[in-house]
């Protein structure tokens, strides 16, 4: 497995604070977000996904031809069709199987499991898994609950069949669609077309936070159990980068050993939804280079409401 | 929980722990029945508020109960009915 990233330029939280009539300290103390990555007009979901994919291929030291399928986790494709993945494949000079998976903040972990399943089934040997989102396209800049946190970016991993022990463990995943309205786009794009309303992300932060705190720690313990490992085998904990306060609550509930590095990419990058787990993984690989061969526990959670997670061997 | 304690809590949630002296929330009788959205308490701040109330007054709050705490008055009545009084 090799990781790649594309981060648009960072914008300090002071700019968001001024826009909302708040202090920078208010944003940082409530969310931990000191800056966010904000994509410009030329940094589309496709172009960011391509850049992250190219970075992963460079890190792996392989050429595009080895890729048997391109999977993109995204929930911000501005077009309902076509999908993002075939355009990413084309930009890489590939005509392989390519499709999107839309399950928002847990999208990368869902997609990683689909990639693992394709490899285990013998459908292909190497799969490019990308998480890419332009969350700020659907965030209301005056919404205090979402505007200070959400961001844009793309992360990617290249997953390859191996003769040795598996580098991607079994998944733990699930959903609770009865809580779909807790984090959703309203009105729909079609409804917005016929009105003066703007389709935007609406978050019931109370419902989402309480669901995450009551669900995610148990999911993480289950990931360790199904992988057959304990915290002594784990070097990194990489939860979806929702906001730093929520991550700290989840980490506290898990009573993590001090040696486990907890991903905090949200503090510099913001919450990039489908891209947050691979971007956080990418940053920890750079800052914790001595962890190779140990396990990293990934877990995505959010809109759906849905969750997915697995342990991966650190390359 | 008194109205004054509620004002102090909302002030911290809306303006931060180190809020400027001129940024203090006061609640009129009519404000007590306004939704937290109307009082600029967003949903993440409500999550923080429910956690603070749960810790401070030692109340187990279910998801359903948390969802019903939509106004200052609803919170004050809930705490009066369920809480063990402590200082904020």
Automatic annotation (TrEMBL), chain A:
Which keywords describe this protein according to UniProt?
A: Acyltransferase, Cytoplasm, Transferase
- Domain spans labelled Beta-ketoacyl-[acyl-carrier-protein] synthase III C-terminal: 227-314
Q: Name one GO molecular function term.
A: beta-ketoacyl-acyl-carrier-protein synthase III activity
User: What EC number(s) does the entry state?
Assistant: 2.3.1.180
Q: Please give the coiled-coil regions recorded for this protein.
A: none
Q: Could you tell me which Pfam families the record lists for this protein? A: ACP_syn_III, ACP_syn_III_C
Task: Name the source's superkingdom.
Answer: Bacteria
- Look up keyword tRNA-binding and say if it applies: no
What SUPFAM superfamilies does this protein map onto?
Thiolase-like (SSF53901)
Q: Which InterPro entries match?
A: ACP_syn_III_C, ACP_syn_III_N, Thiolase-like
Q: Which residues form the Beta-ketoacyl-[acyl-carrier-protein] synthase III N-terminal domain?
A: 99-177
Q: What class of enzyme is it?
A: transferase
**NCBIfam families recorded for this chain?**
PRK09352.1 (NF006829)
Q: What is this protein called?
A: Beta-ketoacyl-ACP synthase 3
Q: Which organism is it from?
A: Streptomyces albipurpureus
């Amino acid at each position: 497995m090799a990781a790649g990233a594309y981060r648009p330029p960072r914008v300090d939280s002071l700019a968001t604070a001024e826009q909302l009539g708040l202090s920078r300290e208010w944003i940082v103390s409530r969310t931990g977000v000191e800056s966010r990555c904000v994509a410009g007009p030329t940094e589309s979901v496709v172009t960011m996904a391509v850049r992250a994919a190219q970075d992963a291929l460079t890190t792996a030291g392989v050429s595009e031809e080895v890729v048997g399928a391109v999977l993109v986790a995204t929930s911000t494709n501005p077009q309902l069709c076509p999908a993002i993945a075939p355009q990413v494949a084309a930009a890489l000079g590939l005509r392989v199987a390519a499709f999107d998976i839309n399950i928002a903040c847990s999208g990368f972990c869902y997609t990683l499991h689909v990639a693992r399943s394709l490899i285990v089934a013998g459908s292909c040997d190497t799969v490019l898994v990308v998480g890419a989102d332009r969350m700020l396209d659907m965030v209301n800049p005056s919404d205090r609950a979402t505007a200070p946190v959400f961001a844009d970016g793309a992360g990617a991993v290249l997953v390859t069949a191996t003769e040795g022990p598996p580098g991607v463990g079994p998944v733990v995943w699930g959903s609770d669609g009865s809580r779909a309205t807790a984090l959703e786009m309203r009105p729909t794009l079609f409804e917005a077309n016929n009105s003066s309303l703007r389709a935007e992300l609406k978050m019931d932060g109370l419902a989402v936070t309480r669901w995450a705190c009551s669900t995610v720690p148990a999911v993480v313990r289950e990931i360790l159990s199904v992988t057959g490992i304990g915290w002594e085998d784990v070097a990194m904990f990489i939860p979806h980068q929702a906001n730093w306060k929520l991550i700290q609550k989840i980490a506290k509930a898990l009573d993590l050993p001090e040696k486990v590095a907890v991903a905090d990419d949200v503090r510099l990058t913001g919450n990039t939804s489908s891209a947050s787990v691979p971007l956080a993984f990418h940053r920890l690989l750079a800052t914790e280079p001595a962890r190779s061969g140990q396990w990293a526990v990934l877990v995505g959670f959010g809109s759906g409401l849905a969750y997915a997670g697995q342990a991966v061997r650190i390359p | 929980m008194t109205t004054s304690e509620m004002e102090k809590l909302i002030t911290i949630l809306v303006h931060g722990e180190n809020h400027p002296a001129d940024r203090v929330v006061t609640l009129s009788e009519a404000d007590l029945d306004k939704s937290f959205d109307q009082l600029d308490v967003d949903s993440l701040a409500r999550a923080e508020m429910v956690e603070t109330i749960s810790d401070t007054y030692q109340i187990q709050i279910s998801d359903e109960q948390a969802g019903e705490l939509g106004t200052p008055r609803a919170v004050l009545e809930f705490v009066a009915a369920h809480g063990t009084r402590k200082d904020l």
